[in-house]
Write a structure and sequence with these properties.
Strand content of chain A: over 45%
Structural class of chain B: mainly alpha
Distance between the termini of chain B: 79 Å
Helix content of chain A: under 10%
Largest sheet of chain B: 2 strands, antiparallel
Oligomer: heterodimer
Mean pLDDT of chain A: 87
Helix content of chain B: 40-55%
Number of strands of chain A: 53
Radius of gyration of chain B: 26 Å
Largest interface: A-B, 91 and 88 residues
Strand content of chain B: 5-15%
Shape of chain A: globular
Largest sheet of chain A: 22 strands, antiparallel, barrel
Chain lengths: 1003, 413
């Protein structure tokens, strides 16, 4: 099936051609070199990783460990050289460069918490100085990533930026995370931020691992942390207008390291460590879901009829007495960067192997990145960036899965795993005990394999300092295969006894074309500056998904999809969606102090309805550098006020606008049609308009930095899944533009230099956010978002609803009120605190924490366990309830109404609402201690360091389940990857802790 | 212009044009079928197959729910909704599945008759496809009337459930007429059998008897299932043979071992003891549907005999009723029953025979509802089942309007 063409193409084409073709090309001149050293102005410490470049050209270099740099190909004549580094004030210096000669230029940079002259590109039409930007931008630099014990980019983001929610979904190697910026602004569409890598948009959604694994890959995690130069984060519609449709969830852009002219610089890193799991679940359950301890001493359940603690046997409990193991971890990374006058390169490779804390849980990944830059002319830079990652993962059965250890072990004698091999259970059954064989869940073969390739070609053309053009063509390719196999001879029944193999194949590709041009002019003696920008983007998304299942194997050989007696193709999707847009923007600057930006983005999308045209998204922002005023005190060196208002949107799904029928075969095998989707020809994107205002300040020579932002967003024409009367024949819900949602919040970030002496440097950083969301208008509907959660007018998006105990603390039977709000799912308060201590410029202690408060989670594990007599906290309560039932009038004298409600003696009385709990947590994410070795200890190396680190070392929470962050990805995603809002804790294995030791060498 | 300038400009142009030239801007998805593609005579067989498919899905969903609510089976598994159904609880928020499935089947079949009338023109009156579409529309309406507490037609206001029987009567009559013209004897018999039932439920017993008499005792018309695809599989088979969600234990039918109409067996664990399901109930496994392709009867000649028996009993003719009952039993190779002592015994016998004859066909809930409403005599154990004395309240005997319908249909008060 095809839909109409998008009408934006001619405009986009014209924009590209006008920018490229109509420009003069500057003549190439003779050139020379500039070299020098960059140090800290305060203590003359060498600054490694500083960017040194010639503005308006692509020519530049990074400083090495000694702070040295060399720039080749600098045009002869008087040239300005600029240096920038996160945490330091930028600096410009001029130098005379003679053709064929080398000029020397050293820099000393002052520290600042707010680097107004730092270039940022995310959310701006062209590279802009921070002082010019009217919205908040968070940046995370390579140094911060290097100092932390992070294994993935998502780890690097945790707790690092205000307004950024990251929830680890589970404790399996290779598992991704849930990422949100400024909360939830769409009910029906994915809220994951758009992700760019070096200007190329990549697939941003979790890729579900499928039937057995119940977790998912996050393509973002395929970027090796050691390859990252910096990360920029823009959060709301006010900042993402130029990205148009799909960007209202914010944008995260990752810049990887590039080479610089000079001798090759090699970096090697070797890491080894171990994953370890502590106690699982509530402290009252010493057995830890019967996973920590599966021995006969622990495997007891409360018989809810007799009130007796009754033993059962797990015949497959390992000799260690626990199903947990310590999982070895090893990682290797090698990179080289360098270049010549006209070519620079950065090539890196990495390999990691990680075992989880369950016997069959592991992930292996590896890949390479090659970033090449060419400077064929002074005005032209061509960058060709390529990255490839391969993953191979074995998942331990997780979540709502009868072959999952959490589900089976925590249900005690009601485990699905009750089949035996041989006479394993004879003794137990002779003793009239229930016997389970939970260990056989690890026979299930849940594998994922992924290939992720990203390639981007960027041509920057700057014929003069006034005219800049950039064209990027990018391609992101994600191919993933997920298998769940049950071997022939399984202990289960039915088709499981003969084995089955389920396989899902996904191919998600994204082709992007991105052009922008800028014309810079100055008037009135340089006081008035104008930057006029234009450009366009085109994205083609292809999604192919095939799900097949075969069952009933004849024998024990390794099966294929043609091995089974029954074979079925569950589904096959092949979608292609085009989104294209044009933008215009004018940035006016006055005295380099006041900046006003106005822009307009116009989008077309092939998923819009037949009657829907183009979608305009306007923006307006202002920035004012108050600290540049003469009256401003010198101790308060930077004060920038900013304000922005803008719109962006989210498009509906590929065929949400069209009335469709699904092909089926009836029971006789005849082909037919059945109603699928009722269709809506007026369907368009939802629009989010956001206003944000705030300030960035740096005081006391950079010792105190403050960034504060208030934002208020309103999403109109919200895409809401509307249910039509089933009596009309179409059962699937239909997207309609009917809702209005509100989001507001406050973000605050502090950077504090507590002690900044050459011998001891102690810095503290903290960020906090308040997030408020509310469904303002849903056209009178309420929307069920899964797992007892709803979106209802007047409540946070989404909120759990259900029975509430009105007298929770009373010593009485529970007094219930029905259909009550039990709390929002997603956190309303975020906190990140980190500190860095450096002793004698050699020994560095880095700590990063993350807190999340105000969210809730439905603890379905407890709900399932309590009416089976296996939930530790309920057992003493239930014993008293049984005693009371038998006539003990005082048995319940100390049992509150809440606990009487929670700990029902019957399944009929059990209610998930009573197990919907606050999911507040505060975690120490990373602790690392690194030491820069003296060069003499590592012959031939220019720098070397060792590091010991720990991850997820401490957790504070009152949540009684395994972990307040867990999520079953199969719950949250369908085959297309669209995320739903509801979350539940349904037998998902919790995140574990990791201890690592690393050696880094630069030579 | 220098060579280098030209090279740069041409390269830039090529870069700009290459990706644009390589692709069109259409959105494509070869799966879903646009509604407009169905307005062609070639679509007639698939349209009818779609109606047939939805009839089977309706039966699939309905027999799972009805078997538990009506006590044909009890719950031995871990599914929460099934636990409620087994306790006779049918809440609006738990019945969207069956409400939607029944209505989709009815609507799809009725829509098919309308589409076929347009597409076939004068051929409509003698088309096998049209006959089947009308039959499916009749079965969809009969099932709707038997299961749903209220009739809601195409987003309209609630009406008495008998509206469905009236619509079914119309569709069955049309199906019989068209099938007679097209020579589809099975459809003719099925239409008469279906019509006999709905006429009876409308109180038109004389006409019902006339229609029933046209159905041979051994005639069976089924909803087709296939294990070639999970969407066409008989899920009750899966839930009782691959899982242990349902059991015959704790039902009246557990006492009737050996009746070919209600077959079941006992599953044994490795220890030699009877196996229990996840909720601890002994698993007695239904054997009526012993593979995933097992079809579900929707019209039976034996039921036609029982309709005739019921008509006779209503007129006080106990002996005549037993004659029809025993004709039906004979079709299953069962011995004739002795004459009951009185009419009350005969009503109890008729209820039991209907229960066995239509076991696991999503019909029993309506029978129990009729018996209760008319205060017909029934097995005391059944009385206890329907109105428990433990204070748990009377069991639901029909499916209420689902939450989705109530929330989306402005005509629902």
């Amino acid at each position: 099936m095809k839909l109409r063409p998008t009408t934006i193409l001619p405009g986009l084409l014209a924009a590209v051609l006008s920018g490229v073709a109509a420009l003069p090309i500057a003549a190439q001149q003779g050139s020379g070199r500039v070299q020098g050293r960059v140090t800290s102005a305060r203590d003359l410490r060498a600054l490694a990783g500083a960017q040194v470049f010639v503005p308006g050209t692509g020519i530049g270099a990074l400083t090495d460990a000694q702070g040295r740099y060399t720039i080749a190909g600098v045009p002869a004549g008087r040239t300005t050289v600029r240096v920038q580094m996160l945490g330091y004030s930028g600096a410009d210096k001029s130098v005379d460069v003679a053709a064929g000669a080398t000029a020397t230029l050293d820099f000393q940079l002052g520290e600042t918490a707010v680097a107004l002259d730092q270039l940022v590109v995310t959310g701006t039409a062209a590279a802009s100085r921070r002082r010019e930007v009217g919205n908040s931008i968070s940046s995370i630099g390579a140094q911060a990533i290097q100092n932390s014990a992070v294994a993935t980019p998502k780890d690097a983001l945790q707790g690092r930026a205000p307004g950024l929610t990251i929830l680890e979904n589970g404790g399996h190697p290779g598992a991704g995370a849930t990422i949100r910026l400024r909360g939830i602004n769409s009910i029906s569409q994915d809220n994951t931020p758009v992700i760019y890598v070096d200007g190329v948009r990549i697939y941003n959604q979790l890729i579900p691992a499928g039937y057995g694994g119940r977790q998912g890959y996050l393509p973002l995690d395929d970027i090796a942390p050691e390859d990252i130069d910096r990360i920029e984060i823009v959060k709301g519609a006010a900042a993402t207008t130029l990205y148009g449709t799909e960007a209202s969830g914010g944008v995260i852009q990752i810049f990887t390291k590039h080479g610089a002219a000079g001798a090759p610089i090699w970096n090697a890193e070797i890491s080894a460590g171990v994953n370890n799991m502590g106690h699982i679940g509530p402290k009252e359950d010493a057995s830890g879901y019967h996973i920590n301890d599966c021995t006969a001493a622990a495997t007891k359940y409360l018989n809810l009829t007799t009130g007796q603690l009754t033993p059962y046997v797990d015949a497959t409990c390992p000799s260690s007495g626990t199903y947990l193991v310590n999982g070895p971890v090893q990682r290797y990374a090698l990179s080289v960067r360098g270049g010549a006058e006209k070519v620079t390169y950065s090539v890196s490779g990495n390999y990691g192997s990680e075992n989880g804390v369950l016997p069959t849980s592991w992930n292996k990944d590896g890949g390479f990145r090659a970033n090449l830059s060419f400077f064929p002319m002074q005005s032209v830079q061509v960058s060709f960036n390529n990255a490839y990652t391969r993953r191979h993962t074995r998942w331990a059965g997780d979540g709502d899965n009868s072959e999952g250890i959490m589900l089976d072990a925590s249900r005690g004698p009601a485990s699905y795993m009750d089949g035996t091999k041989g006479n394993e259970c004879d003794a137990a059954e002779a003793a009239n005990q229930t016997c389970v064989t939970n260990g056989y869940v690890f026979d299930a073969q849940n594998f994922s394999k992924g290939d992720h390739y990203t390639s981007g070609l960027t041509v920057s053309y700057a014929p003069s300092e006034k005219l800049l053009n950039r064209l990027t063509v990018g391609w992101d390719y994600n191919s993933n295969t997920h298998d769940t196999g049950i071997p022939w001879g399984w202990t289960g029944s039915g088709q499981e006894a003969d084995g089955f193999l389920w396989e899902e194949q996904r191919l998600d590709t994204k082709l992007s074309l991105d052009y922008s041009g800028s014309l810079i002019n100055k008037f009135m003696g340089q006081k008035l500056a104008s930057t006029f920008s234009w450009g366009g983007q085109l994205f083609e998304d292809r999604h192919r998904w095939t799900e097949t299942d075969v069952a009933h194997f004849a024998g024990p050989s390794e099966p294929t999809l043609s091995s089974g007696a029954t074979q079925e193709v569950y589904g096959d999707q092949r979608q292609r969606i085009i989104n294209a847009g044009l933008f215009l923007q004018e940035l006016i600057g006055w005295s380099d102090r006041l900046f006003i930006t106005a822009g307009l983005r116009v989008d077309g999308n092939s998923a819009f309805g037949e009657n829907f045209g183009l979608q305009p998204y306007p923006k307006l922002s202002a920035a004012y550098i108050l600290s540049d005023a003469k009256f401003w005190p010198s101790w308060w060196e930077t004060m920038k006020l900013r304000f922005a208002v803008g719109e962006s949107g989210k498009a509906p799904g590929a065929f949400d606008a069209v009335r469709t029928w699904s092909p089926i075969a009836d029971g006789n095998g005849s082909p037919g049609f059945t109603p699928s989707q009722i269709g809506n020809p007026d369907l368009g994107p939802e629009r989010t308009r956001e206003i944000e205002g705030g300030f960035d300040a740096s005081l006391f020579q950079g010792r105190l930095g403050v960034e504060a932002t208030y934002y208020n967003a309103r999403t109109s024409d919200a895409l809401v899944d509307v249910t039509f009367p089933p009596s009309q024949g179409f059962l699937n819900s239909q997207l309609q533009n009917v809702g209005t949602l509100a989001n507001s919040g406050v973000e605050l970030a502090l950077n504090l230099g507590l002690i900044t002496t050459p011998g001891f440097d102690w810095r503290l950083r903290a960020n906090g956010s308040l997030l408020r969301s509310k469904a303002v208008d849903l056209g009178g509907q309420e929307l069920y978002t899964g797992f007892e959660s709803y979106v209802r007018e007047g409540y946070p998006i989404p909120t759990y609803f259900g029975n509430r105990v009105k007298n929770p603390d009373a010593i009485a039977n529970p007094d219930l009120e029905s259909n009550q709000p039990l709390g929002p799912i997603y956190p309303t308060r975020l906190l990140g605190i980190g500190t860095t201590m450096t002793f004698a410029q050699r020994l560095t202690l880095e700590v990063q924490t993350q807190g999340s408060f105000g969210g809730h989670l439905e603890n379905d594990v407890a709900w399932n366990a309590e009416f089976r007599g296996t939930w530790g906290p309920c057992i003493p309560v239930q014993q008293k309830m049984i005693a009371a039932k038998k006539g003990d009038a005082h048995a319940l004298d100390d049992v509150t109404a809440l606990w009487r409600a929670k700990c029902s003696l019957t399944r009929a009385g059990a209610d998930k609402a009573f197990w919907t709990e606050p999911a507040d947590f505060f975690k120490v994410r990373n602790v690392s201690l690194s030491y820069n070795l003296p060069a003499r200890l590592v012959p031939g190396a220019s720098a070397a360091s060792i590091m010991v680190s720990g991850r997820n070392l401490f957790r504070w929470t009152n949540y009684t389940g395994a972990d307040p962050e867990v999520l079953e990805v199969e719950d949250a995603s369908n085959s297309g990857g669209t995320t739903i809002l509801g979350r539940r804790d349904y037998y998902n294995f919790p995140p574990y802790r990791t201890f690592m030791a690393s050696l880094r060498v630069t030579f | 212009m220098t060579n280098s300038k030209r090279t740069i400009r041409r390269a830039a142009l090529a870069l700009g044009l290459l990706p644009l030239a390589a692709c069109s801007l259409d959105v494509t998805n070869p799966g879903p079928i646009n509604d407009s593609a169905l307005h062609t005579p070639q679509a007639v067989p698939p349209i009818v197959a779609g109606a047939n498919y939805n009839m089977s899905r309706m039966m699939n969903t309905s027999l799972e729910v009805v078997s538990l609510v009506s006590g044909e089976l009890s719950h031995s598994g871990s599914y929460p909704n099934e636990g409620l159904y087994a306790r006779g609880i049918l809440r609006p928020e738990d019945v969207d599945g069956i409400w939607g499935s029944v209505h989709r089947a009815r609507w799809t079949a009725e829509d098919a008759t309308a589409k076929l009338r347009d597409l076939l023109g004068d051929d409509y009156g003698s088309s096998s496809d049209a006959a089947r579409a009308n039959l499916y529309a009749g079965i969809g309406n009969r099932t709707s009337g038997e299961l749903l507490c209220e009739a809601v037609i195409d987003g309209g206001a609630p009406q008495a459930r008998t509206v469905h029987f009236e619509r079914a009567d119309t569709f069955f009559a049309r199906a019989a007429s068209i099938a007679a013209a097209s020579g589809d004897d099975d459809v003719v018999a099925a239409a008469h059998g279906g019509r006999a039932a709905v006429l009876a439920w409308l109180g038109k017993w004389d006409q019902a008897v006339q229609e029933a008499a046209l159905v041979p005792t051994n005639f069976v018309y089924t909803a087709a299932f296939s294990d070639a695809h999970s969407d066409t599989q008989n899920d009750l088979w899966y839930e009782t043979h691959s899982r242990a969600e349902y059991t015959v234990a704790n039902t009246l039918f557990a006492d009737a071992h050996g009746d070919p109409r209600t077959p079941w067996d006992t599953i044994y664990a490795g220890s030699g003891k009877p196996a229990v399901g996840p909720n601890g109930t002994v698993v007695l496994r239904q054997k009526k549907y012993d593979d995933g392709s097992a079809s579900v009867p929707v019209v039976q000649g034996t039921e036609a005999r029982l309709i005739q028996a019921e008509a006779a009993l209503r007129s006080g003719n106990v002996a005549g009723a037993m004659t029809f009952i025993n004709q039906a039993r004979a079709a299953y190779g069962l011995a004739a029953l002795a004459a009951p002592a009185n009419a009350d015994e005969a009503w109890i016998t008729l209820e039991r025979e209907r229960g066995a004859t239509t076991w696991l066909q999503a019909r029993r809930l309506w029978d129990l509802s009729r018996w209760m409403e008319a205060k017909r005599p029934m097995d005391p154990r059944l009385v206890h089942f329907l109105v428990p004395t433990d204070g748990s309240g009377a069991r639901a005997l029909c499916v209420p309007i689902g939450r989705d319908e109530a929330n989306s249909n402005p005509n629902i008060p």
